Queue: 4 jobs
Job 1
Amino acid sequence: MKKRIFSGAQPTGKLHIGNYLGALRNWVALQTEYESFYCIVNLHAVTLPQDPSTLKRKTLDLARIYLAAGVDPEVSTIFIQSDVSEHAELAWVLNCVARMGELERMTQFKDKGKGEERASVGLFTYPVLMASDILLYQTDLVPVGQDQKQHLELTRDLAERFNRDFGETFVVPDPYIPPVGAAIMSLKEPQKKMSKSDENEAASIFLLDDPDTITKKIKKAVTDSGTAITFDDSRPAITNLLTIYHLLSGLPLEECEEHFAGKGYGDFKKELAEVTVEFLRPFQAKVREFDDATLKAILRRGAEKASAIASETLRNVYERMGIR
Ligand code: TYM
C-alpha cells in the first residue's frame, strides 16, 4: 500500500513564490509516489479576522492554484477543511491532550498574536487543529516549508502521547522539508521570510503578479554589498535570489554560480525576472481555465474520499477514550 501525504495552505492573502517553492512544488512532485491529500484550510484562516465574502472567494481561488500548480485531481484528493467536520472534532480531543506550556512555546503564535490579550484562542490552538488535520489521515509524510517545522514536532508529540495513553492509534508523521527552497526570504528584508501577511507588497513575488510587476519587484530587490553572485550564507539577499533562480530555471545548483560568473547584479536580475515571468506564464493561464462548477465537483469528490478515512479515525479515537 502507498504511504500517505497530507498538506495544506490557508486561503488568506495572496500565494507567493515561497509557498510554491517551499510546499506546492513538492506536493506535485510527490503526489504519484504517495496517496496524497491536499487541503484548503479555511478553519485555520478564521483564527485571524477575515471578511466572509472574501474568504469564500479565496477558498475556491486556492483550489484553482493547487490545480494550476499541477496537483492532479485524478491522482490526489483536494478538499476544503470545513467540508470534513472530523477536523474540528479531533481538534477538540487533541486540545485535551496538548499542554498550555507546549503551545505557549510556538513561535508562530508569538509572532502572529504579538502577545496581545485580544489574540483569539483559536490562534493559540492553531497548531492543534493542524495536528488534527494530519493525524486524521494516518499521514506518513507532511511536505511543508521550514516555518512549519515546530508545528510538525508538536504533531508528533501529540500523536506519541495519545498512543502511549490510549494505545496505538495514530501514525507518527515525518515532515518533508525540502533541502533547497524551504525558506524563501523577503525581497526587501532578506533576514525575514517571504510572507503572505507582509504589508509591503514589494517584498513578495505573488503567483498571480503580472510580468511588469515581477520585473519591477526583482529590479528593486535589495542586494548585498560586494559583487559576487554566489551561494553564501553571509550574503542572504543574493543567496535568496540565486535560490529562486535555481529552482525556477531548473539549472543545477553548481552551474548557477558558473552561469553568472563575471556578470553584474543588473544582468542577474534581468535574467531572474525573465525566468520568473516565463515560469509563471503557463501557471497563470491554467489558473484561469477552471470554472466554479468544475472546481466544486472536484472539491465535493475530495471531501467524500477524505470523510471516509477521517470518520474511521475519529470513531477509533472516541472508542479508545470511552466516548460513545
Ligand atoms: P500557509 O498557508 O502559511 O503556507 C503554505 C505552505 O507554504 C510554506 N511557506 C513557505 N515556504 C518557503 N518559503 C516561504 N517564505 C514560505 N512561506 C510559507 C509553508 O511552510 C506551508 O507549507 N499551517 C499551514 C497550513 C496547514 C497545514 C496543515 C500544513 C494547516 N494544516 C497540515 C500541513 C499540514 C500554513 O499556515 O500554511
Note: The longest helix spans residues 292-321.
Job 2
Amino acid sequence: MTPSRAAIKITIIYMVIGLVWILFSDRALELLVDDPATMMRMQTLKGWAYVLVTGVLFGLLAWTMLRKQRELHDFDTLTGLLNWYMFREAVDAQLQSAKLNNQQLGVAVINLDGFRQLNSQIGQRAGDALLQHVAGSIRSSFPTHATLGRVAADEFCIALRGDDIQRQIIDLIDRLQTELQPSLSHLQTTDAKQSVSCSAGIAVFPQDARQPKELITAANLALAEAKEKGQGHVCTYRQAYSDNVSRRATLVRDLANTLSRQSNPATTADASKTNPLYLAYQPQFSDPKGKMTSVEVLLRWAHPLHGNISPDTFIELAEQEGFIGKLTDYVCRTAVEELGTSGLLDTLDYVSINVSAHDINSATASEDFARRFEHDAATKQLVEAGKIQLEITETSVMQDKQQALHLLQMLKKRGYRISVDDFGTGYSSLSVISRLPVDELKIDRSFVTHLREDSNDYLIVRTIIAMAHALDLQVVAEGLENDAQLLLLQNLRCDKLQGYLLGRPVPLAQLKALHGTGHTST
Ligand code: C2E
Ligand code: CA
Ligand code: CA
C-alpha cells in the first residue's frame, strides 16, 4: 500500500468512528441518564473513553502499517523468505554464533535450472507459483532453525549451523530435489515438459571462508562449478576449488603474458595466427537489406593449447585479477587503429566497445579510462564526434544508480555514446533509465532467442521498444538468428539489428571484404 493510501485509510477509519460516536453516544446517554449532574460526569467519562479508544485504534493501525512496511523491506514478498540484504545480515549473526559455539556454518546457494526459459514458456504467473512451490519445498526440507532467503529471481540461499554441516546440507538438498519433482509437475504445461531440478553450491565456515561475504562468494563459485557440470549437480567449494584452481591459475598467467607480449594490431586475414588476442567485429544494421551502420567490438582469445577461450571466461578472470583495465585499453586502441586505417570508421555511424564495470566504477577509474582512451588528438576527435559508443551492462549500471548517473554524465559530456547492454536482465525501472544519459538500450539476447508473437518475451520486447522510443532512445536487438525474429522485430520498429542471421563477429579483414555486400552471412 502506498503511504498516501495508508494515510487515507487511517483518516477514513478515524472519521467514521468519530461520526458514529458523535451521532450515537449523546443519544445513548440521554436515553440512559436523566440526572444533569450524572450526565455531566458521564460526558467527561465519554470524552476520556473517546480519547482512549481512538488512541488505541491509532496505535493499532500505525503498528499494522509499520509492520507491513518492515516485512516488505525484510522479506521477499513473493515467497516470504528473507531478501538478499536481510539474508546477508542473518549470515553475519549466524557466523558470530557459530564462532562462539565452536560450530560450523554452511551456506548453500541453490539455483533453479533453466528457470528463465521455463518462465517464458509457462508465463509469469505460473513462474511465480513455481517459485512459491520451491520456497515451500525448501521450507519443508530444511530444519526450522535454518536461515532461508531468496536472493535473485531463481536463486535461494540457505545458512545452517551445526557439526558435519557439509554432509547434512548435501543430504537436505538431495531431499529437496526429490520433493521438487512431484510438487512441480502440475505447473508444467504441455509446452513446458522439461523436468525441474536445482543446482547448488556449498561453502562452509571455517574451512572455506571466515567472513559472511566471502562465504557467500565461495558458495556462488561452487554453484558456478555445479552449473558447469550440467543440471541437478551439487558442488562444494573444496571440489570446485581443486578442480578449478590449477586451470584457472594457468589461464590467468597465460592471459597476462599474452597481453604484455601483444604485438601490433593484426592485419592478416587470419588474425588469430598472428595474435592470440585479437578483435572480432559484429555488424549492426538499421536496414537488414542495406549496409552495416555500426559494429560491436568483441575480444577473442585463441589459446595455443586450449583453443578458443570464451570471453565470458577470460574477461571475468581479468576482472578478478585486476588487469581488465589493460585488456580494455588494448581493445579500444586496437579497434580505433584497425577501423581507422582501413577507412571503415568513416563509413560507420559509430563503433560500440564493451567496457567492464571495473573500468568506470569510480570517478577516478572513469577519468583514467577516458584519459587513456583519448591518448592522441585523433582519438579524442573521434570521441567528440560521437563515433565511440561504450556498452555498459544494465546490472553494472544498476549496482549504484547515483554513482552511475554521475559517471555516465561525465563520459557523455566528453562525447561518448552510451549503450545499456543486456537490457531487461537487470530489473531497472523506467524512472531510473529516464534519468540516465544513455543513447541506446540493447535488448538482451535471451529475449530475442525465444521471440514468438504469443510469448512473454514478445510482450517484454514490445514494452522495451515502446518505452525506449518514448524516452527518445535507440533500441538494438542482439542475437537475431532467424527470419521470424527479424520480422517480429521489424514490425515492432526496432532501430538496429545484430545477430548471426545478419552477420557473425569476424576479424577485420573479413569485415572489410564483406562491407558493402550487406549481410556478412546468409
Ligand atoms: P555481449 O556484449 O552481450 O556480446 C554478445 C555476445 O553474443 C557475443 O558473444 C556474440 O558473439 C554473441 N552473439 C552475437 N550474435 C549472436 C547470435 O545471433 N546468436 C548467438 N547465440 N550469439 C550471438 P561473445 O563474443 O562470446 O562475448 C560474450 C561476452 O563477453 C560479451 O557479451 C561481453 O560481455 C564479453 N566481452 C566480449 N568482448 C569484450 C571486451 O572487449 N570487453 C569486455 N569488457 N567484455 C567483452
Ligand atoms: Ca555487448
Ligand atoms: Ca549483450
Note: DSSP finds 21 helices and 14 strands in the chain.
Job 3
Amino acid sequence: MAGTGGALAADALPGFFISVEGVDGSGKTTQAGQLAESLSRDGHQVQVVRDPGTTALGERLRALLLEPAADWALEGWAETALFLAGRVQLTAEVVRPALESGAVVISDRYIDSSLVYQGARSIPWEAILELHRICGADLRPDLTLILDLEISAARGRREGRPSLDRLESEPNTYHEKVRAGYLEVARRFPERAVLVSADRSPDAVARDCLELARARLQPRRAV
Ligand code: TYD
C-alpha cells in the first residue's frame, strides 16, 4: 500500500518539507508566508511553493482549474488527473531539487488536497495515493499543518473576496466533506499531520505553526 506516499519520504532528503492545508478561507496562504518569514529569520533557506502552481505548467493548470464560471464539464477523475499533472511537475522541477539542496520547502497545499477535495467527489484515497506513487509525486511531508475551521466561519471569510473560484463556489455540503476529509487525514497520518485551530487571530495561528515547525526542525538539525 502506498501509505502516506512513504516510498519517497521527504525525510530521506536533506531538506525539510512542510505542507500547509485547510478548507478554502482557512488562511493557509497567509500562514505559509508568515512561517516562511519566521524560518528565514531563524537562518533557514526557505522556498515557498503553491500547489497547483509555481511551475509554468502548474500556473496554467491552476488558471484552468479555478476558472470561476467554467462552461465545460470536468469529471472527478479528469480533475484528479489535472491536479496530479501539476503536482508531478512541481515535485520534479522545484520541490525535490530544493529538498536535495537542504532547503525548507513550504507548500501551500500538496497531496492531501487531492485526497480531500477529489475524495469529496468519491475518488478513492488509495487510488489517488497509488497514482501519485506511480508518477513520483508522493513526497511525504515532514510536517503537515492543517488549519481547521468550521465551514460557516470559512464561508464568512470567503464572502469578503471579490469573486469565488470554481471550487469555492461549490455548495456547503461539498465543503463539509472537505473538512471531514482533513479530520480523517489527521487521524490517519498522525506522524506528520497536525490540526491547528484557525478560528483565532492570524498571529496566534502563526505562533502555533512556528512552534510546531521549530520543534520538528531542531532535532533533525542536532543530529
Ligand atoms: P487555493 O490554493 O486555496 O487558492 P486561493 O485560496 O488562493 O484561491 O485554491 C486551490 C483550490 O483548488 C482549492 O479550492 C482547493 C483545490 N484543490 C483541489 O481540489 N485539489 C488539489 O489537489 C489541490 C492542490 C487543490
Note: Residues 24, 29, 51-52, 83, 108-109, 113-114, 117-118, 165, 167-168 surround thymidine-5'-diphosphate (CB under 6 Å).
Job 4
Amino acid sequence: MDTTRLVDSFGRAHDNLRISVTDRCNIRCFYCMPESGVQFMERGEILSFEEIERFVRVAVQLGITKLRVTGGEPLVRRDLAVLIRNLSAIPGIQDLALTTNAVLLAEMAKPLYQAGLRRINIHLDTLDRERFLKITRRDDLGRVLAGIEACLQLGYGPVKLNAVAVKGLTEPDIVPLAHFCRDRGIEPRFIEFMPLDAQKIWDRTRVLSADEIIQVLSREVSPLVDIPDRDPRAPATEYRYADGGGRVGFIASVTRPFCLNCNRLRLTSDGKLRYCLFAIEEADVKSLLRSGASDDEIARLIRSNVQAKWIGHEINSTRFVPPPRPMYAIGG
Ligand code: SAM
Ligand code: SF4
C-alpha cells in the first residue's frame, strides 16, 4: 500500500477524520432537522462497528491520527462505548473526541469514560428552558445540564460547549453561556449558523457573526484577546479573556472561512466519504467494504477523494449550492 501522507492538490495534509455513527437524533434542532417526518436510514444501510474500525485502520496508515465521533446523535447508537474502546485501541490514533447533544450523557458518561474517552464537545445553545424547547422542540434542558455535570465530575477534559448562534434568537444566551462556562472551566465555542439545515431556512440575515459575539463578550464579560499561537488547522478561532477567565472559540464558517487550513475528512453513517461539510460529491466506502475489497483499494479511494478536494466552500459566492444532505445526515 502507498502510505505517503494524504496531501490534497492545494498542499493540505489530512490527519483528521470525523465519523458519523447514526443519522438519528433524540431532539430536533430547527437549524439541522425538520420537526417531524424525517426519513432515517435503515439499519442495514449504516456501517457496522467492524466496518468503521476497518476503515479507520486503513486511514491510519495514510496519516489519520485524530478521530471525532458524531452523528446525528451518537449516544443513540447502541453500544457506542464498545466502538469508542475499539477505536481508541487502534495503533496510531492519538486523539479521540465525541460531539453530543448530551441528552443521554448523564447515563453514558461513565461507560464512555471507562472505554477511554476524555475529550467531549457538548452542544448547548441556551440555558433558558423556553428557548431550548423552541430550538430543539424537546423539553430536555435538565437532562443536558445533568450530562454536563456528570462529565465534569468524572474528570473529562477538555470539555467544550458548542453553541449555534442565530440572529434574532440567541443574542440573550451569549453572556449567560459565557458565565456558565467560565464558572466550570469549560471552553464555549460559538458556531455561526450554516446553510446545512434540512428545511432550507438559512439565510445570511440569520447569521450572528463571531465579530458581533466578540463585541458583546468583551463589553459584558471581559475583553477578549486574540491567541496568536493557536493551531492554524483547528476550525475554531480562539480568544482568551484578558482577566484570565479562560478561552472562547468561534467557528466562523460564514464570516471567516477557514478552508485554507482544512485537514478534515468525513465518513457518513451510511459509509460515504466526504472531503468537506459542503461537498456535493461523495466516495462510496460502504460498497467497497461490503464487496470484499482489499485495504489497498480502500486506501486508493481515500486518496482519490482527498485529491478531488476543492479549495473551499462557496457560501459567500452566488455559485453556492447547498449539499444534498442536511447536517444530521453528514455528521457535524
Ligand atoms: N447531535 C450532536 C450535537 O448536536 O452535537 C452531534 C451532531 S450535530 C450535527 C454537530 C454539531 O453541528 C452540533 O454541535 C451543532 O452545533 C452543529 N450544527 C448543526 N446544524 C448546524 C447549522 N445549520 N449551522 C451550524 N452548526 C450546526
Ligand atoms: Fe440532533 Fe445534533 Fe442535529 Fe441538534 S444538531 S438535531 S442534536 S444532530
Note: The two ends are 30 Å apart (CA to CA).
